[in-house]
UniProtKB/TrEMBL annotation:
Enzyme class: hydrolase
Family: Belongs to the glycosyl hydrolase 1 family.
SUPFAM superfamilies xref list: (Trans)glycosidases (SSF51445)
Source organism, top-level taxon: Bacteria
Pfam families documented for this protein: Glyco_hydro_1
GO-annotated molecular function: beta-glucosidase activity
Catalyzed reactions per annotation: Hydrolysis of terminal, non-reducing beta-D-glucosyl residues with release of beta-D-glucose
Name listed for the protein in its UniProt record: Beta-glucosidase
EC numbers, comma separated: 3.2.1.21
Length: 471
């Protein structure tokens, strides 16, 4: 058997990407509601107003997950649904929604994994500076405490933040994510306050829940290789890793602000936003390190006078890679997904082994992995063979890492459903289940049946072709 029965084979979504019902049940706007209403920010002017309407259809979606025999559902809580003013009293209707979702999951034997922050900051907090304001970190801790109190008995694993790299650098440096700002200092403040939010949030969860309920932090650690062995290319790739990975691992895992980060971002001279004692507060090693992995990249030192093409400039022309204007990324080679991301399962293997070597024994879960491809519904089926290949390759990488000693205990396929892919709107389709946005009809793709067979056999070798024959 590749994966034991205890190994969690789950699936994931996030509140703003699937829930819809943005103005129902007492929910107030988040920064993504605002972003979607800002012309030119989201492809096609798409919004999360309706999305997959999971707010109304969650019982059907849980039934679907039960049919697909997934072990766990990783969803996120919309902060402005449960605390409409972001600080202060909870909204019982909002909390009741998540309680009902968790109870429905449990009634079908599916574990509930709740992320507290998957990018939809209440707009009222952004109006006070958002993640550039340290008060946001304290508000987050209060929110975490309130959720643990309200939902502690029905959530099996908590996650503080999802991909703070995106919230900080895409939100405040490149501006392709909400709140759409392009200010390097603001981005570094956001990085720090998100680390602080994790630390304070994890403490708050533990205060209410004790040590028995696991707490996770999900990072999208970047696997960036140098374009050559030349020292300047090696240093260029290192700079990307420092800004992308060490900026979070340093404070949270090791309790330090890396000197390299300050050197790379030397244009920022005022670090007074890091106050005495903050790093101790950030330093909260999670029980489970969540890893979101999709692809790899290769970086080199930009030539003199060359305009660095740092990945992810997007519409704004600004780079998320603060302090890395002298780094350029190589064009992607080989097959890519809809996002233009390369497909390299070995990158996941290497990443898991690297984390294992650095933090021996640390429990890890792949909290997201998957791929967007152009799918087509033909006769009620979606033959998404490329997605099956992608999943097979990446789960194979996980299997190898486990065999080589990495303590990986779960994998969550991104995503259960096609959904709102942020600034790309509905144009990207990551679901193992196709969604018709006119009718809200769900159609499991072949990859969903493949994943179900894996859940049954637990064996990548013998999962075979049974899934192809599903009527
Ligand atoms: C990571 C994010 O957490 C998720 O929201 C997003 O849809 C996927 N990556 C795919 O881009």
């Amino acid at each position: 058997m590749t994966f034991s029965k205890q190994f969690v084979l789950g699936t994931a979504t996030a509140s703003y990407q699937v829930e819809g019902a943005v103005a129902e049940g007492g929910r107030t706007p988040s920064i993504w509601d605002t972003m979607c209403r800002t012309p030119g920010k989201v492809l096609g002017g798409d919004t999360g107003d309706v999305a997959c309407d999971q707010y109304h259809l969650f019982r059907d979606d849980v039934a679907l997950m039960a049919d697909l025999e997934v072990d766990a559902y990783r969803f996120s809580i919309s902060w402005s649904r449960v605390i409409p003013d972001a600080v202060g009293p909870i909204n019982p209707e909002g909390v009741a929604y998540y309680r009902a979702l968790c109870e429905e999951l449990h009634s079908r034997g599916i574990k509930a994994v709740a992320t507290l922050y998957h990018w939809d900051l209440p707009q009222v907090l952004e109006d006070r500076g958002g993640w550039t304001n340290r008060e946001t970190a304290f508000a987050f801790a209060d929110y975490a405490r309130a959720m643990a109190t309200e939902l502690g008995d029905v959530v099996d694993m908590w996650s503080t933040l999802n991909e703070p790299w995106c919230s900080s650098y895409l939100g405040y440096a490149s501006g392709v994510h909400a709140p759409g700002r392009t200010d390097d200092l603001a981005a570094l403040q956001a990085v720090h306050h998100l680390n602080l939010a994790h630390g304070l949030g994890q403490r708050a969860l533990r205060e209410v829940l004790g040590k028995d309920v696991p707490v996770c932090l999900t990072l999208n650690l970047h696997v960036v290789d140098p374009a050559s062995d030349a020292p300047e290319d090696v240093a260029a790739a290192r700079r990307i890793r420092v800004v992308g990975n060490e900026a979070f691992l340093g404070p949270v895992m090791d309790g330090v602000l890396p000197d390299e980060l300050r050197e790379i971002t030397r244009d920022i001279t005022d670090w007074s936003f890091v106050q005495d004692g903050d790093l101790e507060l950030c330093h909260q090693v999670p029980d489970v390190l969540g890893i979101n992995y999709y692809s790899t990249s290769r970086a080199r030192q930009a030539d003199a006078g060359e305009l660095a093409s740092s990945g992810g400039h997007g519409e704004t022309g600004a780079s998320p890679w603060v302090g890395c204007d002298d780094v350029t990324f190589l064009p992607v080679e080989g097959p890519t997904t809809q996002m233009g991301w390369n497909i390299e399962p070995d990158g996941l293997y290497r990443l898991l082994m690297e984390v294992e070597q650095r933090y021996p024994g640390l429990e890890m879960m792949i909290t997201e992995n998957g791929a967007g491809f152009d799918d087509e519904v033909v006769g009620g089926r979606v033959h998404d063979i490329r997605r099956v290949d992608y999943l097979r390759g990446h789960l194979g990488a996980v299997e190898r890492a486990v065999a080589d000693g990495a303590n990986v205990t779960g994998y969550f396929l991104w995503s259960l459903l096609d959904n709102f892919e942020w600034s790309w709107g509905y144009s990207k389709t990551f679901g193992m289940v196709h969604v018709d946005y006119e009718t809200q009809q769900r159609t499991p793709k072949d990859s969903a049946y493949w994943y179900r067979d894996l859940s049954r056999t637990r064996d990548l070798e013998t999962v075979g072709d049974a899934w192809v024959a599903v009527p």
